[in-house]
TrEMBL record:
One of its GO terms (molecular function) is DNA (cytosine-5-)-methyltransferase activity. PROSITE patterns: BAH, C5_MTASE_2, SAM_MT_C5. This is DNA (cytosine-5-)-methyltransferase. Residues 1-108 form the BAH domain.
């Protein structure tokens, strides 16, 4: 969006459309050509200017936004971020920019914003909201999701030392609570929440069986267990997160049964599919969210998009329930579901991390220096606002690759869109002295198996081993979009595919190869793709940490949901 301050509303004649004259605001990245210091400025920051333009209201105007001077925020909010999160489409300015000369200078408040008193009242209301007593089932490492996992539970405890972490079968714990048992029977004697003590119940039952990447059935009974928790505890608020396919599974039958159960308990509820990339992570991740509020409680509205994002990645956000279609949440100001801020990119997330080689699992917890000072605002957030290089980085290691895979990655061009289809068909000697062979096309123009000529007529003897171009990819490529994205490099101006639990060059996640380095993404890079700050600690070996990250809800999305809940509590 372009943002401007209305100077005049007018018509050029009776038969002409309504127009407005605006003084334009600039965003830092648009005001000066890609200076590192401008990428560090908050995304909600604007530069005011005297540049004017005139537009037709019906053609260009999408709605209203709130723009205040930075000085007006002092004493109202603890930080600019709190101001941004407290309402949609909010910005601030403190610089005057001259587009002709490129000069900038500080600017003072001309007049108090017309809605400043309303913001004062809002800030006072938000400050009075008290934290809810929360039970996070399937909490994993702290996002919202994952089943019983000792390593994930340990990670949660490391990051939330004030919380009681129960690592046990959820059905067993519920049975103990129903029987009135107040403490776990093991040596730790941890408290078991009793009926009436839980104000917020949240969780993401394991998605196996619903996920397009994992069709095994064990996760399905967990949904019934989670609803049993809601039925027993009857919390004030209920939040469920799951994969998008949960909404479509079995013609939305499971979703409808879930909603019917909550309605039978007397809850108000709503459901929506949200795109995490629209809430400030450099990743596409579409998730179903169900929000419910007990009778008499203020219902929490779904958050609206904060960032613009790929239209293709935002397709499929409409919710189909039976024969009804529900569109995603839209901004009341603009009437669309695209956000006012630019998307967070791979480059925003990774460009300050040091160069590393593949492997290093033994160094997971060994602090290492950053590659540079923060270069973008996202990196500043990940590093908790520290501008210097004094802090140390952990988890910036990758899985060890075989010599053949290493050779393939080294030959993938470092350009956007490059993947296995750009590999040269040559014979080379690998780092261990063995030979990677040239792929032979034995059937037709590009066929490697008799099935290329006669579908269904595969010959196991046709398989070629240790070829630089993986034989299996051209073998079935015609049936799978030529396996686009496998061995694919990330684009620094693009975003991650949905972060999963095991980044493999030939895995279901798609592009997991670093944009410029010949390796897959590290544990820390995956954590940044999800929005976990660098201080967040994970537990277990390298595989366990990838699993914790891939199963988690992105913290920025969880925060957006939490802000809506706080606003509902403040309005009650």
């Amino acid at each position: 969006f372009q943002i401007g301050r209305i100077v005049e509303i007018f018509k050029r004649g009776p038969s002409f459309p309504l127009r407005i004259r605006l003084k334009m605001f600039y965003r830092p990245e648009d005001a000066v050509a890609t200076l590192d210091s401008d990428r560090l400025r908050p995304l909600h920051l604007l530069y005011c200017s005297d540049e004017e333009c005139s537009v037709v209201v019906s053609e260009r105007v999408r709605g209203l936004c709130t723009v205040v001077h930075a000085d007006e925020l002092e004493g109202l909010y603890t930080s600019p971020e709190q101001f941004f999160l407290s309402g949609p489409d909010r910005f601030y300015y403190d610089i005057q920019f001259d587009a002709d000369t490129g000069q900038m200078e500080s600017v003072c408040v001309e007049q108090e914003s017309v809605d400043l008193q309303a913001m004062r009242d809002e800030a006072a209301q938000l400050a009075q909201v008290k934290p809810l007593r929360c039970l996070d089932v399937f909490s994993g490492c702290g996002g919202l999701s994952e089943a019983r996992d000792p390593d994930a539970a340990k990670a949660f405890a490391l990051n939330h030392p004030d919380c009681a972490v129960l690592t046990d079968d959820c059905n067993r714990l519920l049975r103990l609570a129903m029987d009135g048992v107040s403490e776990t029977p093991d040596s730790r004697r941890l408290p078991i929440p009793q009926r009436g003590q839980v104000q917020l119940l949240c969780g993401g039952p394991p998605c196996q069986g619903y996920s397009g990447m994992n069709r095994s059935a064990p996760g399905r009974p967990a949904m019934a267990s989670f609803l049993s928790y809601a039925d027993f505890y009857r919390p004030d608020y209920f939040l469920l997160e799951n994969v998008r396919n949960f909404a479509a599974y079995n013609k939305s039958c499971v979703l409808q049964l879930t909603m019917r159960c909550l309605l039978a308990m007397g809850y108000q509820l709503g459901a929506a599919i949200l795109q995490a990339g629209q809430f400030g992570v450099p990743q596409t991740r579409r998730r179903l969210i169900i929000l419910a509020a007990a009778p008499g409680r203020q219902f929490a509205q779904f958050p609206i998009a904060v960032h613009s994002f790929s239209p293709k990645a935002c397709a499929g956000l409409a919710l189909l329930v039976g024969d009804r279609r529900y569109e995603p949440p839209t901004s009341p100001a603009s009437g669309c579901f695209s956000g006012p801020l630019r998307p967070i990119t791979v480059g925003d997330a990774l460009s300050d991390l040091p160069v590393i080689d593949s492997g290093g699992a033994s160094r997971l917890d060994q602090p290492a220096p950053y590659g540079s000072k923060p270069k973008t605002h996202y990196q500043l957030i990940m590093r908790a606002g520290r501008l210097d290089n004094s802090d140390k980085l952990t988890d910036h290691v990758t899985k060890q690759l075989t010599p053949l895979v290493e050779a393939r990655l080294a030959l993938i061009p470092t350009c956007p869109g490059a993947d296995w289809r750009d590999l040269p068909n040559v014979e080379i000697t690998l780092s261990d002295g063995s030979l990677a062979r040239r792929l032979r096309y034995t059937h037709g123009d590009r066929g490697v198996c008799p099935c290329a000529i006669k579908p269904g007529k595969c010959d196991s003897q046709a398989k070629q081993l240790n070829t630089l171009i993986p034989w299996c990819l051209p073998h079935t490529g015609d049936r799978h979009n030529h396996w686009a994205g496998l061995y694919g490099r990330l684009d620094v101006e693009g975003f991650f595919s949905t972060t999963v639990t095991n980044p493999e060059p030939m895995g279901k996640q798609g592009r997991v190869v670093h944009p410029t380095q010949n390796r897959v993404v590290s544990v820390r890079e995956c954590a940044r793709s999800q929005g976990f700050p660098d201080a967040y600690r994970f537990a277990g070996d390298l595989v366990a940490r990838h699993r914790q990250i891939g199963n988690a809800v992105p913290p920025p999305l969880a925060r957006a949901l939490g802000v809506q809940l706080v606003r509902a509590l403040a309005a009650a």
